[in-house]
Write a structure and sequence with these properties.
Length: 294
């Protein structure tokens, strides 16, 4: 795949630029994406109107602009990962690692549930070095073969094991008896809304996938919630919270409900850090989907 090596080489050269220069270039991209090409701007504004009807249009535009800036920053930071050292990222990505590491001596596995918070790519790179768990992560394959191979290489170069969401059950089987930490983006839109749990999320009926809670209960993996925030540009902090030590005694609905409430609270605190460009409310609730849970 000659084209892959050409793209990788170009990105590697580009990644050698200092981060401040990459941010400067990114600021130019931000202006183009937001003001000129208006990439998914209608989707972002519509989502913000649903989530924050109490805010003025001007306030929602401020959130949107910060969101686009953060999204472009993450893009540049991901490029930087091509050549940068683990030490470089570790200085800029901190967390209360003790919450996760305190679970390891118990012999239990862990599921970490988080939303689409920036910058999850740096988080994966750091976490694998900060814990004794075997790190597993579920991801959605990219349609473009070149970028699928590139991202897979970046994400697994430090030892993390990535499982395809499309074949997750089969890919997970070799590790089910290991002591693992499984990272899940738990706010994914379900492929079929009729098979999801429906909750009021920002006052709107919203489907949530059942898999994260179901997997935690079946494997009795300690459940930890996490979010990422950005103290300043180029620096991130993850906050882990222990939620359920013995999921086998919990219900899928209750575990999912806790995450829905947690996620909404975090988004309200850090609205510009969530991925507003995906259509979180694209599905309409129908009576045949079952009750809307509270």
């Amino acid at each position: 795949m000659a084209m892959y090596y050409i793209v990788y080489s170009l990105l590697w050269l580009f990644s050698l630029l200092p981060l401040r220069i990459l941010y400067f270039i990114g600021d130019g991209f931000y202006l183009l994406i937001f003001h000129v090409f208006k990439y998914r701007r209608d989707v972002v504004i519509k989502n913000l109107q649903i989530a924050f009807p109490e805010k003025t249009e001007a306030e929602r535009i401020v959130i949107a602009k910060k969101f686009y800036s953060n999204m472009v920053d993450m893009f540049m930071e991901t490029i930087k990962m091509v050549s940068v050292s683990d030490k470089f990222i570790a200085k800029r990505f901190t967390a209360n690692w003790d919450v996760v590491n305190a679970i390891y001596p118990t012999g239990k596995s862990v599921q970490v549930h988080l939303g689409h918070n920036f910058n999850w790519e740096w988080g994966n790179r750091v976490l694998v070095k900060k814990t004794a768990f075997k790190l597993l992560a579920v991801y959605m394959p990219i349609g473009n073969k070149i970028f699928e191979k590139l991202f897979y290489k970046l994400r697994t170069k430090t030892g993390a094991i990535f499982l395809k969401a499309t074949t997750m059950k089969e890919d997970f089987l070799p590790y089910r008896n290991d002591q693992y930490l499984l990272g899940l983006i738990a706010d994914q839109n379900p492929g079929y809304p009729g098979s999801a749990w429906w909750f009021n999320f920002f006052g709107r009926p919203t489907p949530f996938v059942k898999g994260p809670a179901k997997g935690a209960i079946i494997n009795n993996a300690t459940v930890v919630f996490a979010f990422i925030h950005k103290p300043k540009r180029g620096y991130y902090e993850t906050v882990f919270s222990l939620v359920e030590e013995n999921p086998s005694s919990a219900s899928e609905q209750e575990l999912t409900r806790k995450f829905v409430l947690y996620l909404e609270d975090i988004i309200r605190q850090y609205p510009d850090m969530w991925l507003w460009s995906h259509r979180r409310w694209k599905h309409e609730w129908k009576p045949e989907y079952g009750e809307i849970l509270q």
